[in-house]
Amino acid sequence: MAVNLQIPSESEIFPVPGIEIGVAEAGIRKAGRRDLTVFRLAPGTSVAGVFTRNRFRAAPVQVCEAHLAAGKQIAALVINTGNANAGTGADGMQRCNDTCAALARLLDVQADQILPFSTGVILEPLPVDRLVAGLPAAIANLGPNNWFSAAHGIMTTDTQPKIASVRRDIGGKTVTFTGISKGAGMIRPNMATMLGFLATDAGIAPELLKRMAREIADVSFNRITVDGDTSTNDSFIIMASGQSGLRVDSANDAAYAELHQALSAAAAELAQKIVRDAEGATKFMTIRVEEAGTTEEALKVAYAVAHSPLVKTAFYASDPNLGRILAAVGYAGIDDLDTAKLRLWLDDVLVATAGGRNPEYREEDGQRVMKKAEILVRIALGRGSVTDTVYTCDFSHDYVSINADYRS
Amino acid sequence: MAVNLQIPSESEIFPVPGIEIGVAEAGIRKAGRRDLTVFRLAPGTSVAGVFTRNRFRAAPVQVCEAHLAAGKQIAALVINTGNANAGTGADGMQRCNDTCAALARLLDVQADQILPFSTGVILEPLPVDRLVAGLPAAIANLGPNNWFSAAHGIMTTDTQPKIASVRRDIGGKTVTFTGISKGAGMIRPNMATMLGFLATDAGIAPELLKRMAREIADVSFNRITVDGDTSTNDSFIIMASGQSGLRVDSANDAAYAELHQALSAAAAELAQKIVRDAEGATKFMTIRVEEAGTTEEALKVAYAVAHSPLVKTAFYASDPNLGRILAAVGYAGIDDLDTAKLRLWLDDVLVATAGGRNPEYREEDGQRVMKKAEILVRIALGRGSVTDTVYTCDFSHDYVSINADYRS
Predict the structure, then answer these.
(1) Are strands B46-51 and A343-346 parallel, antiparallel or unpaired?
(2) Which is deepest, A186, B43, B354, B356, by most CB within 10 Å?
(3) A53 and A72 share a domain?
(4) Domain with A378 in it: what CATH number?
(5) What is the pTM of this model?
(6) 3-state secondary structure of A199
(7) pLDDT tens-place string over residues B161-205
(8) Its Enzyme Commission number (chains A, B) (predicted)?
(9) Minimal Cβ distance to A309: which of B227, B352, B407
């Protein structure tokens, strides 16, 4: 069902020196599934994270924030699927801390050198015993070439693993960027997505990496939406091992811009792959708002269109019932919007202008674009010079089936 | 498919002295359908309206506002289905004005004594010739007993007519309240709903009625949502003919409170009937937020829950996957929400408390409530003393089918 989602072959995935991964079957929710993943990071690796703004932040999100704030060398990440450990109160915090302590003992580090991540059902106790019992198998599996296995290991309702991997020559060094992500529903990241892990062997000063992680999230994971439901567990992590020999300590360094661009491109690819594999998706839609006065109003309009169930079902049906897009723009919350200045295009087809239908617009032109699997919806507001873009998908019977059946 | 939607028999519908209705088949979109309705109002009838805040307000909404502002005696309403005359620019305004002029000629009044309403597809030209050609038949049909027919005449994807009718003794007079509404999708009224018309033979001073209409919309049509899509055509109209002999000129009058309450109850019934007959609905859900600090934050939380596709599909499946409700509360936009103070009930079952699952909660208790057709979701925020309530429905395969097929 995924829309033009490229899955690299194992030989196209570049390992990242300094990063090892181990995956195991811990039977957390169901038997016979890879549901437990451990990342081990070489000493000297910088780590920065961006996390959900949902007020019901999951226990692992709270623990991640605390451990990153403590400022020690992060030694490992532990990720389980099958249970989100969210909406679980003080008991959930305890189970999360127990997980970190168990992995720390096995790796001979401190508990606050571990970052924990959970994804799955909310409001149910984490089966910490089964998780901890699975850790030795994950550790035994540690190696540099397990990215493909890890991409499977973090899936829930995803139908395909999501991996981005590229090598670039920057500052005279060959630098690797490899990452994985997951998520298919409850996707409207607010600071990060369900789970995204991006590693590089560039060296990046911790404070700089922290700022870069926020900026990169804002052009990648913070620009996608499936259903408008911001998860309790969104986490996006960048790891920089430094083992390529490239080192960037400040935004003034020569290699900074190129490094930022390479990380942003890899993050955008991981984020868009989530939309391509969204629950029930049959279309990949780019909503580009131009001529906005501010980023905030561009995003208000883009998200109103991207979240409208009526717009999303029309795209599913390939039906150019495009008045629904105007209605969504109209209720997006820009009180002084001058509808006479607005123009709407589907790809290159000008649909609406001067507050109404373009006189030259023909239904068959709209129909031609609607039938495609990838569609650009372009909305010019006539208010300023800001452009911003959100990526989303259509709304199909399968979304309802998947979410009516999930968990049951 | 409608959820516990009561349809009164013809004998249970009380005509409103001073109000006549005529319905015709004008073939506006499809042949053989009642799609044109005219209300004729006796001289002395006060009329007030509340209209959509969508920036793409339809031509008839703009004309209604202008005609009400002009302050002349409103003589008639004309309502067509099959075409919304929205997103139609200057040409749409012309066609709307032509409609008013044609009806005014036939009734021997001025064009600005007519209020026009349209509902149906957006972004397509109103077939004004067919509409005008149908007016004589609608006028010939004028009579006090056509409420049932009018309720059918304003339907689009509605499966059932929506009518509320009651007689009350107020201030020593027998006063009648009868109204109709329509709408099943693109429902998240912001000031009013798709179409609601409520008539009484109480007499109400025009300025007072105007204020009452806004207040009444805020406890009825402005508290329902189906899909979060605020329509371009939402209109709610109250007509007060005065023919019962009861007259209210100020909020200090003895009968005011009782009259307000009766109108509010009738409007709430009409609004809730829209949710009961919402596209694909199988459940009617009341989202009540208690202990909020302000009305605004109560509504933020209520609408976040009511619009979450994940919450709505879980209710469709009768699956007590209730962490989805916590996630929606968490992203509702209350930045300083203390999740430890929040409590969540399904009917009388306490599901969550102290930031996590109630230790006494048993899955079978949640399951029992989820299987019902009418469910109360009660959320206490622990922040203040404001309560507010929103009415909504679940999200089913049929919603997708109806909106993927509508228009095609």
Answers:
(1) unpaired
(2) A186
(3) yes
(4) 3.10.20.340
(5) 0.86
(6) strand
(7) 999 999 999 999 999 999 999 888 777 766 445 788 899 999 999
(8) 2.3.1.35, 2.3.1.1
(9) B227
